[in-house]
Design brief:
The chain has about 350 residues and is α+β, with helices and mostly antiparallel strands. The chain contains four helices and 20 strands. The strands form four sheets. Strands 1, 10, 11, 13, 15, 16 and 18 form a seven-stranded mixed β-sheet that branches. A five-stranded mixed β-sheet has the order 12-20-19-14-17. A four-stranded mixed β-sheet has the order 3-2-5-7, with no helix packed on it. The longest helix is centred in the N-terminal third of the chain and has 34 residues. Its cofactor is Cu(2+); Cu(+).
Amino acid sequence: MDRKSFLTTIGFGVMGFVGSIFGSIGFNSKRTNDICGPSDPSSTTTNFGVVTTPTIGDNYQNSIGAGGSLRGTNTYGSMAHPPFFIKEEYTNRFYFPPNYSNTKSKTKEFQLNLFPLSVNIAHNVNYQAWTFDGVVPGPILRANLGDRLRIHVKNSSPDPHSLHFHGTHDPLEDGWEPIPAFGERTYEIEAGPIGLHPYHCHVPPLMVHTAKGLYGALLVDPPVKRKPAHEFVLTFSGWDTKGQGKNDYYTWNGIAGIYDRYPMKVPVGERVRFYIQNMMEREPVMTFHLHAQTFDIIRSLGTIIPDGHSDVVTIGQTERVVIEFVLRKKGRYMFHPHQTHMAENGGMGWIVAV
């Protein structure tokens, strides 16, 4: 190769290299905007693929990407978010303040109406659910140890369903027999042992009836009250929205990212207690991990004495656990399953110590 040919070859090589770099930048920026939406829709400046966090004043509108999809709104944000119309008040029914006191009546009666309903589990994601009282998870039932519970169930549905409680009770009240379509039944059980007990439909195919939303929680308090605490009942769920036999969204208390958008707020130095249950179908296990703080673990029913201490706890299907902790410093404490796909698709949240 003579000198002229050599210089020509080198020139084309450099031009190609420079062109590939700028072409890649342009393509990646365009691709990021297509998938995530521009970080500032009013700006004409290329953001070179960097997704920025919307300010509080944006009301999450800058989070809307192509086709109405919703991208993460902070560095550690979930990739799934609540519908815009869901307000913070939604979380109130899962919280019990330190001064909470149940009624002293030894007989407690509950009414549950079971019917199908389209529910919003994430932004632009509706799911044809089966519900107790039109909510997923169903209402939290709370009683004292030894209380007589009378639960009247109305099946306002064209399908057979039932109500099965975990815990100790008369096998004749176990709830595996179906209530026929548009039928009714009253269950009578004694509350116990102390702790958190799932309730759910037990009609085959069980996975379908549970996965579509027919579950809730029964909380049984001890005769001697636990120490005062800010109490939260947390139900973890998975959702197969595409009908492909696998979960693609994950929720705490029925809404993806609910505690990402609306963090729990607790005072510094005051006790916090979580009652956690895993009602996810199609996957055998999830973990609960709390950042920057360890916690006492009460796995065993019938006791209030901790039997472990960690910053992560593993929970199988329908298992439950009580955890207790105190946040000593102001700040934001993240929590999530340590199965990354669950955290990214709705399972990440925050506790704010104020």
